[in-house]
Design brief:
Helix content: 40-55%
Radius of gyration: 19 Å
CATH topology of the largest domain: Rossmann fold
CATH superfamily of the largest domain: NAD(P)-binding Rossmann-like Domain
Structural class: alpha/beta
Bound molecules: nicotinamide-adenine-dinucleotide
CATH class of the largest domain: Alpha Beta
Number of domains: 2
Number of strands: 11
């Protein structure tokens, strides 16, 4: 039987509707409107699209969006000064710095400058540490969206074999940690993993976060597995593709996410969710 397709667009839409309702209740009860500041340095077209989409999503859900579009020549000092200003701004409850940053700026220093209380992407070392401890405040948006998508299948993650392909700080490692906290038995594969296909074949849950189109092929996937494709790759013909060979894997998997329309929309919904949760914490103070 072909895989059921996990419609990230529909799932994200229903989440965003719920967020919009909560935003309006929060504003009525406390006068606090969740504010998200997005900072983009440079003119990378893909990053510009991401930032614009995040702004539109904020507006639709009733959040207050602030966009800071800075030229490539922006110095690290100027960027850090802006972050400090936003850290102190009571209208702002979430700050995101769109990556990648230009090479003359040290990303680590910039991410560490964001207040851990406003770190909507969950990249600050304090939030990374809390995630590892199992007591997270901000969970990185894409991994949070991935778990939400698995939950939407009704599968109980506890006790399942999960294989994450990719070990980046923004996707692979945190998604592995979240699965571990949900009591999955987790293996993280990467570019030096030996006999990767045989490891992936054992998985009840496969998360592909590599950045290589069609990397996960049908013969790597166990019949009925849940396959979540995080990859976004631009092909020579201009089309987008994930890391999974969708057409063939769908004949083996139990559940499968498409690209586009899978994890991508969930990432934005989780960013709104993180900002809302942050605003609620500020409103309580
Ligand atoms: P990254 O480049 O930081 O990490 C890629 C990982 O893949 C590395 O850990 C590397 O070890 C592993 N890898 C590379 N080649 C491999 C191979 N041959 N075999 C096994 N592992 C291999 O990438 P990232 O930031 O984690 O992003 C991964 C993909 O997910 C990209 O396509 C990116 O565009 C996409 N992405 C999507 C979203 C979303 O919202 N949908 C968010 C973030 C990233």
């Amino acid at each position: 039987m072909p895989a059921k397709i996990l419609d990230g667009k529909a799932l994200a839409l229903s989440l965003r509707e719920g967020i919009a309702r909560e935003v309006s209740v929060l504003a009525q009860n406390t006068g606090v409107k969740p504010g998200l500041a997005a900072i983009l340095v440079g003119d990378d077209p893909a990053s510009a699209v991401y930032v614009r989409n995040k702004k539109i999503a904020c507006e639709k859900a009733g959040l207050y969006p602030e966009e800071h579009l800075l030229p490539t020549s922006t110095s690290q000092e100027t960027l850090l000064a802006l972050i400090h200003q936003l850290n102190a701004d009571s209208k702002i409850h979430g700050i995101l710095v769109q990556l990648p940053l230009p090479s003359h700026i040290e990303s680590k220093a910039v991410l560490q400058a964001v207040s851990p209380e406003k770190d909507a992407d969950g990249f600050h070392p304090v939030n990374v540490g809390r995630l590892v401890e199992g007591d997270p405040v901000f969970v990185p948006c894409t991994p949070k969206g991935v778990i939400h998508m698995i939950d939407s299948t009704g599968l109980d993650i506890s006790g399942k074999r999960a294989v994450v392909i990719g070990r980046s700080n923004i996707v692979g490692k945190p998604v592995g940690m979240l699965l571990l906290h949900r009591h999955a038995t987790v293996t993280i594969c990467h570019s030096r993993t030996k006999d990767l296909p045989s490891i992936v074949r054992e998985a009840d849950i496969v998360i592909a976060a590599i950045g290589k189109p069609f990397f996960v092929t049908a013969n790597m996937v166990k019949q009925g597995a849940v396959v979540i494709d995080v990859g976004i790759n631009r092909l020579d013909n201009g089309k987008l593709a994930g890391d999974v060979d969708f057409e063939h894997v769908k004949e083996h998997a139990g559940w499968l996410t498409p690209v586009p329309g899978g994890v991508g929309p969930m990432t934005i919904a989780m960013l709104l969710q993180n900002t809302l949760e942050s605003a609620k914490r500020f409103a309580k103070q």
